[in-house]
């Protein structure tokens, strides 16, 4: 609604033609932007529709009218998505931008889509406010977690550290496309707001979403793969998550799933980016600092040490390096590990995800297991896919073993 209001302002007040009235997100592709957003929005509405079961209402009381109003808004939004689906067909076949759609050819396109949104939005917003969704967003149910001050949640989250690393990386040559960064973060925050209606603290959900978005854009160069990682990660964090530890490492799970499905070339990960030494110096310093605060430094060091112990000798053996020369090359190859962006991001921000690893004496075994599984998988799949898959499989194995022990 905000985007269409901005388009109306550009078109009516500023006098721009419809072709140049591209809203706030003018830097994005108009057709893809509106098609993806409206399709995701409709998907969320269908989920709510299935849970609401408005077909069970029979009267016209206030309580029963709200689901009817929501259903009306759902049908209007469904037609809106149909319009954008046809516009995508026009865009892909004849290359128009903006495209007219089904009824857009008979009306001013900006006015038509603004009033189409205006017809659907208040009906759905009324149900949201009346059902207490706004109150839940602003004042979530009291838990130990929500009693924390907002600044405390901000400090505990890796999001600020990753933001600093990302900004400094842009300055030192670790480039991330503005299009990829903007759309991924925008989508992640939108999904977090939606999930906060049903479960969890708003600030925590937004921080988690930003962490996933930053990791996705720093590891992946594909727009669709980055968005898929965000969506799978945030939904698996809520749908597949358990009420107690051990928890699912939803970040590793989503990366492993999307990289496996799009293997070998669609993801285009940054695994081979090396030699940005000042960038990785900052990454190491900030990574160690946040792990020290969360008391997970031992897990990080165990992961990196095991990786060096298993992968470096294997790499030197594959290159047919003589034993004496291998001893000389081992330190330099080990240091090169610290300039691998994805591996360091994995070690500092994904492996030590809270509540995903065993406590006490088994906690060091967990990162060793992650690397060992990754090492074995690297014989049959690319090493970046193996790195994420090793963590996901080790985490799932830990959850299964813990469940079996508690059940027994």
Features:
mainly alpha, 17 helices, 2 domains, 408 residues, globular
Short description:
The chain contains 17 helices and no strands.
Shape, per Cα inertia axes: globular
Helix fraction by DSSP (H/I, runs of at least 4)? over 70%
Number of distinct beta strands: 0
Number of helices: 17
Q: What's the mean pLDDT score?
A: 75
Indicate the low-confidence ranges by residue numbers.
24-29, 142-146
Biggest sheet descriptor: none
Describe the structure.
The protein is mainly α. It folds into 2 domains: 2-131, no CATH class; 150-407, no CATH class. 70% of the residues lie in helices and 0% in strands. The chain has helices at 2-13, 30-52, 62-94, 109-130, 133-138, 150-156, 159-172, 178-198, 202-219, 223-239, 250-261, 277-293, 297-318, 323-337, 341-350, 365-377, 383-407. Helix 10 packs across helix 11 (250-261), helix 12 (277-293) runs parallel beside helix 15 and helix 16 crosses helix 17 (383-407). The radius of gyration is 24 Å and the shape is globular. The termini are far apart. Residues 24-29 and 142-146 have low confidence and may be disordered.
